Amino acid sequence: MRATVLVRPKQGILDPQGEAVQRSLRKLGFDVSAARVGRVIDLELDADQTENARATIERMCAELLANSLIESFEIHVDES
Amino acid sequence: MSDQPIVAVVVFPGSNDDRDAAWALGAVGAEPVLVWHEEQELPAETGAVVLPGGFSYGDYLRTGAIASLSPAMAAVRRFANDGGPVLGICNGFQILCESRLLPGVLRPNRQLEFVCRDATLRVENADTAFTRRCEDGQELVIPVKHGEGAWYADEGTFVQLAARGQIVLRYTADVNGSLGYVAGVINEMGNVMGLMPHPEHAIDPLLGSADGGLLLAALVDAAAEYLLVAA
């Protein structure tokens, strides 16, 4: 089973990387008023992990994938 | 037990100041022992632990995040919970924050540039095991070299830490966008401290400053005391 975790800098948290990306996009002529840079983690779970997959991935986020002080996360489970 | 207390320096894949730290600790009266990160236990008679600078595990995911899960860190956590003195320098500070042994987190520098130079720090609390050879308000010159040194905590935590004297060192001017110019913090119990500057690079006036020696020598004192109490 596949799942994707999106990790983002929390709202209000300074994101210097996003600011640099935004400035560069503007230099290229794109009208971008803000950019935030996060990370994507694609997971493949063992077949026996499909039950409660979401709860399991939430634990992964809490224990390793995201730092709750500065990052929020979003979980997408591919049910197919 | 020898006169020189053992200070364990944990070596992670990607540590690069482990030998500098060991050399500096030896120069201020410790018997340094390098401990590979896969070790399950610290050496017998360990009096203190140093987590050195570097780029453990390539700083994958977040600085210090992967290293915080290594076997040696489980041993360091037990040691810290027993009251053993632990000092994290630069990447070591990042690892302690990711391990939740210290409050807050280290974020990419505000200016998005690696900063490598001498920094002036003010001792905000000289009444700790790590700063007791200093005086309140004393200014120390100790080099920094990091890309991810902007310490951050939410406002409530920050105010509480400041009120409790857990903000131990601050830069005298902005270096990296660190909240409140914070350069070093200590845990509530007073036995775990982390700082971004490198005291091990400042223990000889010939190299520009010996101020780092004040912190490392205090750690060696704390190691000797810990062993005395444990004996």
Describe this structure in words.
With 80 residues, chain A is an alpha+beta fold. Chain A is 31% helix and 28% strand. Chain A has a single domain (2-78), classed as Phosphoribosylformylglycinamidine synthase subunit PurS (Mth169, Chain: A), CATH 3.30.1280. By secondary structure, chain B is α/β, with parallel strands linked by helices. Chain B has one domain (6-230): Rossmann fold, CATH 3.40.50. Chain B contains five helices and eleven strands, in the order βαββαβαββββαβββα. In chain B, the strands form two sheets. Chain B has a nine-stranded mixed beta sheet with strand order 2-1-3-4-11-10-9-6-7, with helices on both faces. In chain B, strands 5-8 form a two-stranded antiparallel ribbon. The longest helix of chain B is centred in the last third of the chain and has 20 residues, at 211-230. The A-B interface holds A 13-14, 16-17, 20, 64-65, 67, 69-70 and B 61-62, 65, 69, 98, 104-105, 107-112, 152-154, 177.
